[in-house]
Every structure is written in C-alpha cells, then in structure tokens.
TrEMBL record, chains A, B:
<dbReference type="GO" id="GO:0016491">
    <property type="term" value="F:oxidoreductase activity"/>
</dbReference>
<feature type="domain" description="FAD-binding PCMH-type">
    <location>
        <begin position="38"/>
        <end position="217"/>
    </location>
</feature>
<dbReference type="InterPro" id="IPR006094">
    <property type="entry name" value="Oxid_FAD_bind_N"/>
</dbReference>
<dbReference type="InterPro" id="IPR016169">
    <property type="entry name" value="FAD-bd_PCMH_sub2"/>
</dbReference>
<keyword id="KW-0274">FAD</keyword>
<dbReference type="Pfam" id="PF01565">
    <property type="entry name" value="FAD_binding_4"/>
</dbReference>
<dbReference type="InterPro" id="IPR036318">
    <property type="entry name" value="FAD-bd_PCMH-like_sf"/>
</dbReference>
<dbReference type="Pfam" id="PF02913">
    <property type="entry name" value="FAD-oxidase_C"/>
</dbReference>
<dbReference type="InterPro" id="IPR004113">
    <property type="entry name" value="FAD-bd_oxidored_4_C"/>
</dbReference>
<dbReference type="InterPro" id="IPR016166">
    <property type="entry name" value="FAD-bd_PCMH"/>
</dbReference>
<dbReference type="GO" id="GO:0071949">
    <property type="term" value="F:FAD binding"/>
</dbReference>
<dbReference type="InterPro" id="IPR016171">
    <property type="entry name" value="Vanillyl_alc_oxidase_C-sub2"/>
</dbReference>
<dbReference type="InterPro" id="IPR016164">
    <property type="entry name" value="FAD-linked_Oxase-like_C"/>
</dbReference>
<keyword id="KW-0560">Oxidoreductase</keyword>
<keyword id="KW-0285">Flavoprotein</keyword>
<dbReference type="InterPro" id="IPR051914">
    <property type="entry name" value="FAD-linked_OxidoTrans_Type4"/>
</dbReference>
<comment type="similarity">
    <text>Belongs to the FAD-binding oxidoreductase/transferase type 4 family.</text>
</comment>
Amino acid sequence: MAGSPLVNDLRAALGDDAVLTDPDLLRLHRKDEADLCEAGTPLVVTRPRSTADVVEVVTIAGRYGVPVVPQGARTGLAGAANAVDGAVVVSMVAMDAVLEIDPVSRIAVVQPGVVNAALSAEVAKQGLWYPPDPGSWEMSTIGGNVSTNAGGMCCVKYGVTTEYVLGLEVVLASGEVLRTGRRTAKGVAGYDLTRLFVGSEGTLGVITEVTVALRPAPAESLTMVAVFPTTAAAGRAVARIAEDGLTPSLLELIDRTYLRAIEAYRPMGLRTDVEALLLASADTGSQAAGDLARLAELCEAAGAEEIYAATDAVEAAALLQARRLGHAAMEKFARESFPGGNGGMVIDDVAVPRGALAALLDGVARIAVECDVTIGVVGHAGDGNMHPNIVVDRADPASLERGRRAFDEIIRLGLELGGTCTGEHGVGLLKRDWLAREIGPVSLRVHQAIKAALDPAGLFNPGKVF
Amino acid sequence: MAGSPLVNDLRAALGDDAVLTDPDLLRLHRKDEADLCEAGTPLVVTRPRSTADVVEVVTIAGRYGVPVVPQGARTGLAGAANAVDGAVVVSMVAMDAVLEIDPVSRIAVVQPGVVNAALSAEVAKQGLWYPPDPGSWEMSTIGGNVSTNAGGMCCVKYGVTTEYVLGLEVVLASGEVLRTGRRTAKGVAGYDLTRLFVGSEGTLGVITEVTVALRPAPAESLTMVAVFPTTAAAGRAVARIAEDGLTPSLLELIDRTYLRAIEAYRPMGLRTDVEALLLASADTGSQAAGDLARLAELCEAAGAEEIYAATDAVEAAALLQARRLGHAAMEKFARESFPGGNGGMVIDDVAVPRGALAALLDGVARIAVECDVTIGVVGHAGDGNMHPNIVVDRADPASLERGRRAFDEIIRLGLELGGTCTGEHGVGLLKRDWLAREIGPVSLRVHQAIKAALDPAGLFNPGKVF
C-alpha cells in the first residue's frame, strides 16, 4: 500500500517526513480513547505543517475519492476521530504554533495542534486565561477541543469552548480555504459559520487556525467539599445552589465508586464510606468566603453529612487533582474488575436541566441494579452534565450486552428528563443512533442538507455523527 | 389586491383578523428604522398567533412563490426587516407570550414577539436577569434580537444575544417545524443549528419559539464618567483598561456632537465643551469601589481632563438614561440640521479590536473633515464597537453622496484595522455590499450554499444580507 499512487502524490506534495505508512503508526492512529467503538486502519497518516499542506492532502484525497479523517491528540471519548479503513488521516499535531497573543484585544491566534495546556501556559505569561479545561487538557489539542466543543470543570461559570472561538480558518472539501469570524469582541457580519464548525467533529472541513478569546487571569478561589448519603441528595444540593442565584466557579460530583477508584489509584485521604461528594469553588474575590459559606449552608440543607473547606490553595489543588485523576483511576478500576485485565468502560455523557439532576442520579442507581452492572458516576454537577461510567467485561458478551443496555437506558432517561445524549464528549460513533433520536427527522434532514452543501462527496469523516 | 387568491387562502387559514391588507397598515410595515434604505410595499401583512399559523403562511406563500419577510418591532437599523414589493410580511408581534421561566435551570421559553423589556421585567420577578440590552430594548422583540444577534451596553461584560440562546423552534421554507438546541446548560449533539439561525436576519426561516439562558440578578453597580480632550484619548483609555485586566460592566463612549444633541433634546447638565465622554460601571460587589478607582486612574493616565463618580444609583441611572437617549436626540439633531426638517442620518456600526479603537476614532474625525459632513460618534467602547452617525440632507443629492462616501470610508477603515462592518446592527440592505467584501468569495459561496440547502426557492427575505 505504501507505494500506492495516492501515497506517492502525498509524498510528492508534503515530503516523506509528513506521510506515514509504517504499520505500527497506522495502528496507533486507528482510534481515540473511546472504548468499544469500531475503528478502521488508515491507508496513510499525514502530518501537515501548514494550511497549504492541508489543502494538498484534501485535494489529493478528493481526487482519489478517499475519505479524510482529521485527528488531534486522539483523546476524544466518542470515537469521532476513529479512522475508517483505507482513509487518509490528517493528524494536526505538527501544526502547534501559538501565532499571536494580543493582551489588549484579549485574543490568541493558534494553530490547531497546540495542546490546551501549552496555550494556557503561554497566555498565563501575559496575565491572561483560556478557560475551557476538558479533563484531557494536558494532552488534547485546541483543534480537537474546537471540533468537539469541549467542556470541562470551569464551564459552570465560564462556558464551553464555543464561547471562546472567535474565528477559524478551515480547509473545505473543495480544497478552498475558508476564513470565518473575526478578531473583534462583537460582530454579526453574515451567518455564524464559526460556530457551525465548532462541534462539527471533523465532518465539514479541516480546521487549520483558531482565533480564541481570552479572559484576564482568574481570581484566587476558595474550595470546599460536601459529602452526601445519596447521589440524589448531592443532586438536590446543586438545584438549591442554582435556585439561590449562586454561580460557583466549580461544582463537581464524585460518587462512591469513583472515590474508591481514586483512593486505590492514588491514596489522597478521600472518604470512601460516603455515597457522593460535591466539590465546589468560589472565585468572587473578597466575596468568595461569603459565597463558600452560603454554598456550605445550601449543601447542609440538602442533607450533606459533612462539609469541610480547603484550608489553603495547596489543599484545594489536591482536591481538584483528585477529581482530575478520576478518569485514569476509573479506567484502572474497570480494567482490573475482570480477570485478565479485560475490564473496560462505556462512558455516558448525559446532560439534564439542573433541576432534574437528582432524578437522573436516582435513575442511574436504579439502572445499575436492573442491568446488574457497576456504574461509577462523576461529572460537572453544576451544569447537570454527568458521566456515568459503566464497567463491562470485554471478554464476556453477556456483560457487554448488559453494559450497552445500561448505556442506552441512561440516555433514554436523560432525554426523558429534558436532557441531551451528549453534554460535552460529542456524538462520534458512540451516540450516532441516539443523535437521530434526540434531534428528530426534521433536524436530521437539515444536518444532512448542510453536510451535503459543504461536502457533497462525503469526503470528511464519513460515518460519524449522523 | 385584497381579494387575491393568496390573500383569500391566508384568510381561510388564519382568520380575517390576522391578515391585514389596509393600505395604511401595509405602508406601516414597509420598513424598519434604517434611514435611506430601499423598501417595498407588501401585498399583505399576517399576524400569526401560533406556530401552526406560521406554517400556514409559509406553506401558502411558498405555493404562490411569493417571498416571506419576517418582522418583529421593526426597530432594526440595517433594513433587514424591510418589505419587498408584493411580499407576505409575517409580523410576529402577536406571538408575545412568556411560556415558561425555570429558576433552577435558569432558562425561559418565550414566543418571538415578546418585547425584550417585558421579558426582562418578567424574569426579574424571580430574581433573574436576561442581559442582552440593545438600545431598542423597550420596544424590540426577542425574535428580532435573535434574528440580528443584538448587542447592547452590558455586552462588554455579559456578551451578546447569541450567548443566551439555547434553543429555537423555526418554521423552514419546506413548512417543516425544526427544533434546535436544548434546555440544558451544555450540549453538543450535532451541529450548532441554533447559532446558525441567530443573526441570520430572517433569511433561513421564521423563528417561532426561543429558549434563553438567564443569569442571577446582577449586583448593584457603581458608575463614573471621564471626559477627554479628544475621542482618540478616550479610545486609548479603553485599551489601557482592557490591558489592565479590568472588565467593567459598562464602558460607553459619547462624543461632543452627541453630548450637544442630548443636552438639546433633554438638558441633563452634561458637559458639552469636551470632545468625548466615557461612561464606565463596575458591578463587582465589594470590589466595585476599588475597580472604579482603578478605572479612574487609567482614564487619567490616558489624558482624562475630569473624572467624577455618580454619588448614588439615581445619578448613575440618569447618566445611563442620557446615553440611552442618544439615538433619539441625534435623530432630532440630524432632522433639524437642514431646512424643512429634511436632515437624516446614515448609521455606521463598525467594530474593531479594542487596541485599534483610538485609530478608528482619529480616522472618523479625519473622514468627517475630508467628506465635509457632521459625524456624531457614540458606541460600546469596551467592545470596540462604534456607531458613527453621519448627518445628511435628504433633499440634497450632493449631501447624500458625501454622506454615503463617509459611510463607506469609515467601514473601509474599520476593515483595515482588523474590524467588521457590523458589530451588532446586522447586514440587512445597508451593508450587503460590504459583507461580500469583508468575508470574501469563499465565505460568500458557503453562505449561498447553506441558504440554498435550507431555502432552495429563496422564499425568505430575498435580497437581504447577500
């Protein structure tokens, strides 16, 4: 395959270094972090170094009628970046420059391969802040964050990725280079094409440049922990907090399964004898102490058994770190839950209106019993966005079947409660069928019409989303 | 015309009360508030009372191949709601219900005809706040605000309309009813169709329901005024404020022409012997006084001649009221600037990166001299979004020509400075040619492809935007 005319054309255009056909590398680029999703083996992986390189890749692939699958760091959790057999993968990791930081206009212009944490560090040097902080932020790229409209822990107060994307450069299926958006704080010239591409999961074009809005560096925050006798009680606390008009800068839930997984992964002195823990922060400057006290009061009123405030920034950082370790800890826990390290997990990502959070959490507990599976629950409680992680034995078809059923039941419940099948991970392959059910036939036809208008031959990321 | 088959069909479907053909009413619905824009006379004005009514109107108009022009309160400033000859106008003012307010999820579901101020008053009763506050907020409808992605004074801290639109119901050209978005704080299921419709100025469908995000009621704010010897000095103050990491809750500029117009319209004791005034507020609770002091310091460093803080909420409200009166005052000033009340104004709406604001303001002053026109400048300085108002004599072709030249020169300068031809008013008819220049041929083709995908027959609002 390495000598195919397509690969030869790519080599001629990009140089040998940017065109990978080594079988190990092809295998490496088959999939993202989503467990139990189908994936194909690409024909070739390209690593463009410029927009012109991307134009070459898209044009050449288009000429051969071979699908193009864009990839960032492949940390996604829905299979959106999974390759299809014979595809040209466009890995954007070599385009990782921060092109410009403007502290007066509070914007940065970056290439899509820059890692979220690298951009954050760079802007911090100028007293600025790029808020979106998906769990993968130390590895994931801005291009991937934009393509999936990534969320994170700070979103409860500061919003998700799309709120920070002002403009894009995108290579279209035609090989044309589209520039969308602006560098100004406001602008309404034409359709909001920028946000049409944000969250489109690589199905409409390849993003080659991103202009993001920045904020002034955040204020110091104060952090507290409240533990609850049931996850639903924690959910009720979240509703009370919202109703009270408070806007914590962080409001996360960790359930007992997760707490135990984290303690087993790295002992941090978390209580593992409680059903749920809420982690909350306030960054309202001189009012933060008062806001934290009010958060504590509301948690107590909702049935919290114990509340303690972090005594200093170090302790607060440790609590956040425990939350951040959750995914890796839970993966290890799942893996080791079955003989031969065959355990895996299917990760739900439902979001419900905040008022329905307690009902969702009650329902998840019931579904775990009904489907006879272990489900660890963690998530962005303040946004009503929960990640029930269903533990399955990959080697046991019956276990997989039970896990898949629980996965579906949780989404069904989320939709019944007025929610969505994906709060922040995206549709990818994992929730493709659910998307159609959630949005309905009219919206699906509009999606297909827009896809056909921009990518008539179906070149980009076929089989994903819808 | 009243007995045309189209009108008869509309009467049969909606009832006589909802189908207007009185010539005076037809004339009334010809245009919005944009001066000097072309407008046609509609064949009929419909006032649907339900989504089903809108489906009827769109289906019937589509059957006859007659264009459909959606209208709200017709307070727009770009001609986007102007009728075309023989069109069916869909006036959404009778669909003005607030359907639901949910204080826990902090959302409201409304019909598009609800007036912004009415929604604001309604949610305020529950301690909630709908921030977007265009100058027209006491008259304009949420549907119109959504269709133009309206801005306002609070946007410098709280963002524009699109940040608050979670979901929409839209009647498509096919007569199908599309539901977009969600009721949850986060959600990434499929393309962001919601924001594709926000700001699309009635060219893609008729919005029949809007789900908006709300905030807790804002904190009390403190307000100050700084006066400057040049508008550019005020622009430099804005850049320093941004660079310093401050986020005022309001940061408005009023120039001397405007100050004089306001004082003539309603004397408020504003200084009319200065070139520019900055109005700034801080709503950071117990830190507001400190933030206001820092704002004053930065204004002084940028050359402010005098600074005074409002002593109480009443005085602060009066200052804001003076700013809000600007549009009406300037209209009167323009009208009376020429014999026979023939004066009018062409309103620019450029937005530039904050760092370029001083250069824009200097340029506007130069253009006024070069084109021999009076230009009053007012705007959302903190967003870099300025409204230079060019005074013209409608009865004098030479004056109109000089005004049009100044209008174009200001946009040209705005684009050169990295800005946009419209920060918040929209494209409509007024900036249609400039949109094409700003976004370029590739983006224009993408716009046309999306329009064709959703509205293949060009039913909705033909001739607008592009």
